[in-house]
Design a protein that fits this description.
Elements: E1 2-15, E2 19-26, E3 30-36, E4 53-59, E5 68-75, H1 84-100, H2 108-123, H3 131-147, H4 157-161, H5 166-184, H6 189-205
Antiparallel strand pairs: 1-2, 1-4, 2-3, 4-5
Length: about 210
């Protein structure tokens, strides 16, 4: 197996003394996992930050083997992690994707939406500019994974984008969160939904 693709880092965890196992979302190949030798070193740590866009080369002798990965930084989103709300949003959406999307199954619509959402989180003037897009992204994931339209962001999503009621945004945030917890993260709620609860707390402070 040999794959070269642009991708978005979704998770990176230590493996052994120096390596990292990285999960990254690509357009053509879906979620890819690979072992990055030296990933815990000083040069690679800033590259393997969730949310970063990279160019990845993955190679494996057999399809069942964990590929070895070489990763080059394309876009760094590390500067935005110093801000509480963008950091919480990036942490949530990347860990969410890493947890619920199956490996090597392409979801181009999710990949495109994730790219756009990360750009909005990093560059919108405030969370009011990207929170409705985050809800639409979560609804898209539910739909793409087979849960239909009933958890969609709703036809009034554009009203929120145009500066609608922030309380309605938070209420929809809570309703979609219940669906995610029940259907996609039922067996991992404590590990992954905790990141969403941090984000919810920070968004709620905007309504005060």
């Amino acid at each position: 197996m040999q794959i070269r693709s642009s991708a978005i880092i979704c998770s990176a965890r230590a493996h052994g003394e120096v390596g990292m196992i990285v999960r990254m979302m690509s357009e053509a190949h879906g979620m890819l996992a690979g072992y990055v030798s030296g990933g815990r070193g000083r040069e690679m740590r800033p590259v393997l930050i969730p949310g970063n866009a990279v160019m990845a080369d993955l190679r494996a002798r057999t399809p069942s083997q964990l590929p070895a990965a070489r990763v080059e930084l394309a876009i760094s989103r590390a500067p935005f992690l110093s801000e509480p709300l963008p950091a919480a949003a990036i942490g949530w959406v990347t860990s969410f994707c890493a947890s619920v999307l199956p490996e090597r199954q392409p979801y181009p619509a999710i990949h495109h939406a994730l790219e756009a959402l990360l750009e909005a989180v990093c560059h919108a003037p405030s969370a009011r500019g990207w929170a409705p897009a985050l809800l639409a992204f979560e609804a898209l994931v539910l739909r793409e994974l087979g849960y239909g339209e009933r958890f969609g962001a709703g036809a009034d999503g554009q009203r929120w984008l145009d500066g609608g009621d922030w309380g309605e945004v938070l209420a929809r945030f809570d309703r979609i969160g219940m669906a995610l917890s029940r259907y996609l993260l039922a067996d991992r709620r404590g590990d992954v939904m905790g990141a969403r609860e941090i984000l919810r707390h920070r968004l709620g402070r905007m309504a005060a």
